[in-house]
Specification:
374 residues; alpha/beta; 2 domains; three-stranded antiparallel beta sheet
Length: 374
Amino acid sequence: MAGREVFGDEEIKEVVDVLKRKVLFRYGFDKEREGIYKVKEFEDEFKKYIGSRYALGVSSGSSALKIAIESLNLPKGKEIITQSFTFVATVEAIKESGFKPVLCEIDKSLNIDIQDIERKITKNTVAIIPVNMMGCSGKIDEVIKLAKSRNLKVIEDNCQSTGASYKGKKLGTFGDIGCFSFDYVKVMTTGEGGMIVTDDEEIYKQAEYYHDHGHPHLPNLSRGEEKRMREGFNFRMNEIQGALGIVQLKKLPEIIKMQKENKKKIKEGIKDINGIEFREIPDPEGDIATFLTFYLQTKEKAEKFKEKMRENCVNPAILNYWHFIANIEIVGGDFPKSREILDKMVSIEIKTIMTDNEISKIIDVIRKVAKQII
């Protein structure tokens, strides 16, 4: 499920173009770089693709979350709600920014449970971070509606679902600010790197200042002369990342198309198996097909099923520790609904490039194991 699968001459050409100019820093050095700004070009293309007014390239998806929280200038020490099933960076970013993470249960879409959000909101809640997990959203429109009714900010963690949409609108554009990741295992990659998008000019400015030590990036003033606009840190994207991003973004629609075709073939090959229940996807059209997930009747059957898959050289995805248990280690609490869903889950990572033989093998192994286990 990664853009690295389609690395080619296009990426090499863009990176070499940067190296020839010998400027890897995204700001300044106009003469040496001959007016070429790869990160800026990537940002401009990304905001057009996503449908936002502003986009800011940053050093990682994790830093995107941290910057997004800081850009809202919320009162420190308050509570931010997110889900128990998410990559650990979501929770880490909340804590690193000086807030208390409050975790919610998930539903069978593997996304945040709306009813549990309502139960967890208190007078100290200032924001919600819904996470669009594993290529698709839950009912993100209902999350936004609830947040607005309670006057809460929404930071949309779309680090796992770049290019996905919900009811025709790209994920990452529903909240006050959206976050993306382009690390090495994402659907498009710059090696590391991330992006922030928003339609709010003030939020964008605060994010831009924060990600570069408070610099306002004035066109007619050197960095050394700029007055710092706020406290910040170094979360800048570099020009090589920007160059890779330009090419990968162009390839993204085809990557998604290929993944959807591969997922469809596998799903068609196993959909008649009695005893499996496919993941609930609120908007199948908007899914970018990074995973095929189904549930078995019990934890014991799911564990045995995954064990037998491995024995037959088809590896199920490993998601429970860094995406669930580690969050509980940080925050504490018990999430029985989420645990039950995840315990019964079997997931297969969908690659962009798959041969008919690879697809047939996955189907054959799943059918074979199903006869033994279910």
